[in-house]
From TrEMBL:
Example GO molecular function: ATP binding
Residue ranges of every copy of the RecF/RecN/SMC N-terminal domain listed in the record: 3-322
Chain's role: The RecF protein is involved in DNA metabolism; it is required for DNA replication and normal SOS inducibility. RecF binds preferentially to single-stranded, linear DNA. It also seems to bind ATP.
Keyword Transmembrane found: no
Superkingdom classification of source: Bacteria
Protein name listed in UniProt: DNA replication and repair protein RecF
Any one biological process term the GO annotation gives: DNA replication
UniProt-listed Pfam families: SMC_N
Key word Cytoplasm present: yes
GO cellular component terms given for this protein: cytoplasm
Binding residues for ATP: G30, A31, N32, G33, Q34, G35, K36, S37
Length: 366
């Protein structure tokens, strides 16, 4: 799977751009604020139909334009692939894959997958448990798009269950009890399915993350653990145990929406004990390991998009990263000098929303 060429029209700061990508490594270089991340965001859109920065569609459309277009041409398993996206403010976007309309984001995932590392990924290690849950669940969906339905189902159940808990005003009337029993049964089915999938994923992910971290940083051990207490006796029993507490507080207190993925470095919690550079390396190892699992499951590597990845890695780790990139296509942006290993790939220079091969003619004045 790879993209050979990408076209952007009215996407962020780009009025119009055509970019040829190397099937291996492409480095996108340029000063701050020139459009490097915007280009990566457009490529990422083709691989997931959303902004990896979590930006709303209105932010993606160039100021003054009505809609943005991103088009990518490449191949998947030896067959030509054409992905065409029209992005309109307010989420009214349309996607064609090989000229066929795609209705849901997860259908788009069937064709092109991208794994992204961005500076915000530091939060995977430094942030609260929700960041790590989202990481796990996004990876689950990338590995098996059908799990998106389980996740959506769970969100819906939790919303309605929480609304009931709030409305009850802390009183367990027979009607509240009967309705809560129904929601608990549904929450148990969806919640245990998601937790089982997370636990199985972590079994595979743990060794992959440890290896990715060792490749980047040398000897230190990174460990992952997903073992919510409620899984010992089952979710239904745990919900019964906290029912009075939940009614009093008006919130759903137990379940996959409250779980933690523990990430340790040398057996210490990385959130509180690792340095910023170590945390960034762990976050990168989480993404690289995810890319490897997706590659193994698809039998073809996903696109790897690394935004501003060298900014907090020391020269040894930057070099190690480039030496251990998973097979497949990688696009990396940097405002800093490129480590020498990047040179065997292609280097593109971005200035004022224009992209040119490094060493080629400078962009024409805008
Ligand atoms: N919707 C939009 N319309 C026009 N310009 C936009 C839009 N959204 C963002 N920009 C412009 O894009 C530029 C930022 O581009 P980008 O984030 O790609 O920079 P970068 O090259 O990655 O910089 P850095 O090295 O600082 O991360 C900003 O100058 C911003 O004003």
């Amino acid at each position: 799977m790879h993209l050979a060429r990408v076209w952007l029209t009215d996407f962020r700061g780009y009025a119009s751009a055509e970019v040829a990508l190397d099937p291996g490594l492409t480095a996108v270089v340029g000063a701050n604020g020139q459009g490097k991340s915007n280009l990566l965001e457009a490529i990422g859109w083709l691989g997931g139909l959303r902004s990896f920065r979590g930006a709303p569609t209105e932010a993606l459309v160039r100021v003054g334009a009505e809609r943005a277009f991103v088009r990518g041409e490449g191949e998947r398993e030896g067959r030509a692939l054409l992905v065409e996206c029209e992005i309109a403010p307010g989420g009214r976007s349309r996607t064609l894959v090989n000229r066929q309309p795609v209705r849901r984001a997860r259908d788009g995932l069937e064709f092109l997958r991208a794994v992204v590392f961005s500076p915000d990924d530091l939060e995977l290690v430094k942030g609260g448990p929700g960041e790590r849950r989202r990481y796990l669940d996004d990876l689950l969906v990338a590995l098996d798009p059908r799990l998106d339905a389980t996740r959506a189902d769970l969100d819906r159940i939790l919303r309605q269950r929480s609304a009931l808990l709030k409305q009850s005003g802390g009183r367990l009337t027979p009607e509240v009890e009967a309705t809560l029993d129904v929601w608990d049964a549904r929450l148990t089915v969806a919640g245990e399915a998601l937790a089982d999938a997370r636990a199985a994923l972590v079994d595979d992910l743990g060794p992959a993350v440890a290896t990715a971290y060792r490749d980047l940083a040398g000897g230190d051990e990174v460990g992952l653990r997903y073992a919510p207490r409620w899984r010992e006796g089952g979710l239904l029993a745990a919900l019964h145990e906290v029912r009075r507490d939940e009614l009093r507080r008006g919130v759903s207190l137990v379940g996959p929406h409250r779980d933690e993925l523990d990430v340790t470095l040398q057996a210490l919690p990385s959130r509180t004990h690792a340095s910023q550079g170590e945390q960034r390396s762990i976050a990168l190892a989480l993404r690289l390991a995810g890319a490897r699992l997706v590659a193994a499951s698809l039998e073809t590597p996903p696109l790897l998009l690394l935004d501003d990845v060298f900014s907090e890695l020391d020269p040894d780790r930057s070099e190690a990263l480039l030496g251990h990139l998973p097979p497949g296509q990688t696009v990396v942006t940097t405002a800093a000098a490129l480590p020498p290993q990047a040179v065997p790939g292609q280097v593109l220079r971005v200035a004022e929303g224009r992209v040119t091969p490094a060493g080629g003619a400078p962009p024409p004045p805008s």
